[in-house]
Amino acid sequence: xxxIYLLIxxxxxxxxxxxxxxxxxxxxxxNAKDTGINFSNNLLExxxxxxxxxxxxxxxxxxxxxxxxxxxxxxxxxxxxxxxxKLYLNKGNLKFEDISELAGVEGDQRWFTGVTxxxxxxxxxxxxxxxxxxxxxxxxxxxxINNGDNTFTEKAEEYGLADVGNSVQSTFFDYDLDGDLDLxxxxxxxxxxxxxxxxxxxxxxxxxxxxxxxxxxxxxGSFTNVTDEAGLxxxxxxxxxxxxxxxxxxxxxxYISNDFSTPDYLFVNNKNGTFTESVKSVTxxxxxxxxxxxxxxxxxxxxxxxxxxxxxxxxxRRSKANMASMNPDLFWSTVNSGFNYQYMQNMLQLxxxxxxxxxxxxxxxxxxxGLSSTDWSWGPLFADLDNDxxxxxxxxxxxxxxxxxxxxxNKLKKKRFNKDSTLAWVKKIPSEKIDNFVxxxxxxxxxxxANEDWGLVYKGFSNGCVYVDLDNDxxxxxxxxxxxxxxxVFENTSASKNNHLTLKFKGAEKNKFGLxxxxxxxxxxxxxxxxxxxxxxxxxxxxxxxxxxxxxxxxVNSIKVIWPDGKEQELNDIAINQxxxxxxxxxxxxINKEVVDVVKPLFExxxxxxxxxxxxxxxxxxxxxxxxxxxxHRTSMFGPGLAVGDLNNDNLEDFxxxxxxxxxxxxxxQTNQGFIKQEIEDLKNDAGxxxxxxHIFDADGDGDNDLYMVSGGNEFSLSSEKLxxxxxINNGxxxxxxxxxxxxxxxxSGSRAYSHDFDKDGDLDLFVGGRLVPGNYPLPASSYILENxxxxxxxxxxxxxxxxxxxxxxxxxxxxxxxxxxxxxxxTDLIVVGEWMPIxxxxxxxxxxxxxxxxxxxxxxxxxxxxxxxxxxDNDGDMDFVAGNLGLNYKYKANAEETFDIxxxxxxxxxxxxxxxxxxxxxxxxxxxxxxxxxxxxxxxKSKFKNYEQFSLATLEDVYTEKELNKSLHYQVKSFxxxxxxxxxxxxxIHQLPNLAQFSSINQILVKDFDKDTNLDILIAGNxxxxxxxxxxNDASIGLFLKGDGKGDFNPIEGPESGLFLAGDVKDLxxxxxxxxxxxxxxxxxxxxxxxxxxx
Length: 1096
Hints:
Layout: H1 2-23, E1 27-29, H2 32-35, E2 63-66, E3 75-78, E4 86-92, E5 95-98, H3 100-103, E6 111-118, E7 127-133, E8 142-146, E9 152-154, H4 156-159, E10 167-173, E11 182-187, H5 197-205, E12 214-218, E13 223-225, E14 238-244, E15 253-258, E16 265-269, E17 275-277, H6 279-282, E18 286-287, E19 293-296, E20 305-308, E21 311-312, H7 316-322, H8 328-336, E22 342-343, E23 347-351, E24 362-364, H9 366-369, E25 375-383, E26 392-397, H10 406-413, H11 422-427, E27 434-435, E28 437-441, E29 447-449, H12 451-454, E30 459-460, E31 462-468, E32 477-482, E33 488-492, E34 499-506, E35 518-523, E36 526-531, E37 535-536, E38 540-541, E39 546-551, E40 556-562, E41 568-574, E42 578-583, E43 603-606, E44 642-645, E45 654-657, E46 666-671, E47 674-677, H13 681-685, E48 691-697, E49 706-711, E50 726-730, E51 736-739, E52 749-756, E53 765-772, E54 784-788, E55 797-799, H14 801-804, E56 813-820, E57 829-837, E58 840-845, E59 848-851, E60 863-864, E61 867-871, E62 880-884, E63 900-905, E64 914-921, E65 924-927, H15 931-937, ...
Parallel strand pairs: 18-22, 34-42
Antiparallel strand pairs: 1-33, 2-3, 3-4, 4-5, 6-7, 7-8, 8-9, 10-11, 11-12, 12-13, 14-15, 15-16, 16-17, 19-20, 20-23, 21-25, 23-24, 25-26, 26-28, 27-30, 28-29, 31-32, 32-33, 34-39, 35-36, 35-40, 37-38, 40-41, 43-75, 44-45, 45-46, 46-47, 48-49, 49-50, 50-51, 52-53, 53-54, 54-55, 56-57, 57-58, ...
């Protein structure tokens, strides 16, 4: 009896465990036999049609979904490249009937690509528009008009939509807001993959009628080509066209994603039938191989964001063996052609709001978000897959053959074959099935891969994809069109765990499904905003309805709907878990809300020429990579430094901004009429120096301010006199003379100088940071403490580093420092930070300095630190600190278990040191750089690893050996996060700053009570534009105001609210009083100064 009871208990337990495990998976893949969906986009290559005769063989087909018979169930349509199209009627319970032949939509011998559904003729039934590409004619796109009886009639010619431009996809939208649906057609003119940028640039200005994308205006019963009239004639290898109101002006805009180095286009609607191309005005980088795009608000701030995918493998082996690599010549040719900065990675363009007058500003945060690398990606989709109220991401993935296999095509270059034997060679191209990607939204601008957790796993070659509620249960299924395999249908069960709401729309007479409608749903203090555009991702379109996950909300507090013509309606206290139809007839004209006084933001960019100084820093040309091939970034672009102070004793603050080599520093005196640039002969004579730091202080104790310039850069030899710092002495009225005797010899490439009376003798001493050893990255540079031994009228400083702070010799690559009394003992201590350095704290023991970093719990903090500032942020009477690191949005990643490392050694015994960067991938440590660029530095690598596949599998030790690595100069980073150090009980407690502060490197920090609430705030700015071309530059920061609460916590206030907009390669910041008002000055590399008014 007991044995039977035990057996029953065990059986129940096992069943329970199995049941719970299954229940934890949101998705399950349905069998084609069960669903009736047996479409397979089979590619039947032959001698006349294969990859070598038609290079676009593997772009796959699309999928569209919508209710074609108005029975309340969404149906599915798949395009076939070499097989018939298929239309599946949804019969309920996830069962489908193939009605393709009866419906008359299978097509002919054309190569069908993208597909979208829309009600083209306003009869209340969805029609189907198919794009056509391929090698052979006919190439006219096809329009299947719904007859209302499950049959269709092809009428593209009749409607004027039989475009022959080698189309990839199309999107219906009402661009002129006249009430009906117009059409944008995205074309990909067949182009040699090796076409240079000169060709693309020529074609952009000379695109012919077939090549250009097209805009067709709906004129009621037929469409008119208005491409030129709308200003949209273009040339691009277009892979997607997506509609969204990016600037929230009520008019639909267009994002066009283009392949290879042809530039993307963001066409902003001018509200008069024309568009203005604005992609470089609103984005700072785009994808190189721009594939599919989706646009939606993923962070619930009611602004439309943009997700664009590319081809960049997450896996080390695939990345190094099968992915294209960027070379500097191509990269800079693309930039110099005006095609923006393009990188081989996905782009998650976060909408920062309307910061460019009427235009938005976007920051690519794909690295922070964890979305940058999803292999050979096609279709991205934003969708709330777990119904928690936050949009997740699905990305279709895979290519039928590895057409970027470096080894195979290198081997092929040595072969000779005629066109009759191409098929045999095609079949030898390697092929590897890979999974798609699905990411769960972490609700903090980051995502977590969730394929296994959610059960959404399929290895194959997926192209077009959609999300759709196929069973009307309130959650979204995922459907993909696969090459050489059945289409995938993944059933979603999240509606059993979280609540939901689906909105359908009964639109106006000429737009019966309400395309272009906008809805904001509020529930549980969460606001979700969506726009209904159907063409999304790649070659595909979703159903005309909006799905909202509601989490555990028990009621929808409000729904606000804005129709394309501007009419509005609002519903309140709506029941959850329903499909709700909203009717246009109930809409009313938008109510003009009571005008309220506009409150000026705290920060406001100042352009008044009577206030600002129009000064541009001009960077000199120098190629750091010529001698240091594997540098992670250029080290010759760290300027300019900035200093503020009264230079002519008129009680007005003046400023100095450094110059790059061959460019003079700028000295500006403030007057009542504005700033006047000064011509200072000795500074002019020193224009050959690179000014990294500028510091204003009274060096000789005579009551006026003198000027210290830190010399730096990477252009000079180790012994160059151009590395000697300079001191310019003020004669009392703003005239400066360079002192040739005041400073000791300091032939070091420096960073910044900081003055303080560390020895309490009544004058100002100096700490000077050493930034680098030219041509020898990352060798540590020496820093200095200079004791002021001046007598009045005779400035002089003595190098006392070896006596009182010997650790400063070869300290590291110092970027910033601060004099501060850490322990309130009355003696000012010193904190130093730098690249590849830990936070380093020196306690001042009555004039001598002792490293107490370990005692203060910061000895294991090596990072790429660029800045540090102090403040008593928690009001406990001691100084806390905030330190700016590289940030979390860079290619380089690190944590305690998987570090980012650098090694310096002469690995190949050629009397030259070699740089080796390493990273972790899937638990193993690999060289960061690939075989090609690594072998440029160390040619022996090519002989050791005969091909790319071998190198792609080689760990760091396989390549460089444990013995040689152990002999190397070695630095290791465990975190690139910028942080707040809380001074607590004699040691520091580290707190990571919010993710909004991790967008980029923080080069300068200002600490002040900016908003006058008695609590200290933080203002940050930065970026790092000097990265090598395979590492996307750090350009996402636009500055950030962190509002302090007086308890050690900070609330990031974004640009639209704070008014702060500090884009660019910001290298220094300072506060300055101008005409009695408080301003900020931002100094940027190779850019104009920016002045910002503080409105408090």
